[in-house]
Design goal:
13 strands; mainly beta; 2 helices; 3-stranded antiparallel β-sheet; single chain; Beta-clip-like
Length: 169
């Protein structure tokens, strides 16, 4: 877990419950809690700023050809981790704490929890013991692995449909 107590970060924007900070060394932006959150607690609400038919690296998938731009935009700085501490509930349109989050902790979510097939796969550098390495979307993760994560209803449906297709084959 990254805590922004060292001096390699500068605050970019303050949103009361969390702040966007930029790493001075690599310029990467991240989202840090400004208070403690308990598991299951709602961190914030969000909405769709725009709805796109194709994914981008800034969208969150909510349907087969339905990808939303997060509103408020500062939520786009919640980075990926294979050991996330928040979840984007795209049905309730809420960001929910998955585990205790301390003031100063970086908020992270598991990108495949919302993305079936990502437009820009990447090599994960989260450093957690269960890191998956390359992140491409839920469709590229074995059922026994993805079942360990909380995923959106859309991803649950995709996994169910894939399982039924594989059983018929």
């Amino acid at each position: 877990m990254i805590t922004a107590t060292n001096t390699s970060y500068r605050t970019v924007s303050d949103h009361i419950f969390a702040v966007v900070r930029q790493n001075i060394v690599n310029n990467q932006k991240a989202f840090f809690a400004q208070r403690r959150y308990e598991p299951g607690e709602i961190v914030t609400s969000f909405s769709a700023g725009a709805v796109l038919s194709s994914p981008t690296y800034l969208t969150v998938q909510v349907g087969i050809d339905k990808h939303i731009m997060l509103q408020p935009e500062h939520l786009q700085y919640i980075n990926h981790s294979c050991d996330p501490n928040v979840f984007f509930d795209t049905d309730a349109m809420k960001v929910i704490a998955l585990k205790p989050i301390e003031e100063g902790d970086e908020m992270t979510f598991f990108y495949p929890s919302t993305e079936w097939d990502m437009s820009q796969p990447f090599k994960c550098l989260c450093g957690c013991r269960n890191c998956l390495g390359e992140i491409k979307g839920a469709s590229h993760i074995r059922p026994d692995v993805i079942s360990q994560y909380r995923v959106t209803l859309f991803i649950q449906q995709q996994l169910h449909d894939r399982s039924n297709t594989e059983k018929r084959a």
